[in-house]
Fold this protein.
Amino acid sequence: MTITEQQFYDMLNVDEHMNFTNRIQELVFDKKGREEFYSKILNIHHDMGIDFFRDYFMAHSAVSAKGQHYIHQMNLVSSQRCLYVVLEVLI
């Protein structure tokens, strides 16, 4: 089971990718927000050994208005690092 795009958006009360990534960055400095986000993730997905952010970021990093710019490993790793830093702060 993976977390859907809409579930991610609902967790952070946003409606598009740009707002989602901005909110993730804000969570770095918002302990209460990080804890709430982490709890919402655990309510949907209990197995933290599965990378449930991968599909989301692959879909949103693949193409921009200027064309394809997605480099599979580099962009995926950068996106995941941002999210894992947020989550690791909670552990």
Notes: The longest strand covers residues 63-64. The two ends are 23 Å apart (CA to CA). Helices lie at 5-12, 17-27, 31-44, 54-61, 72-90. The first helix runs from residue 5 to 12.
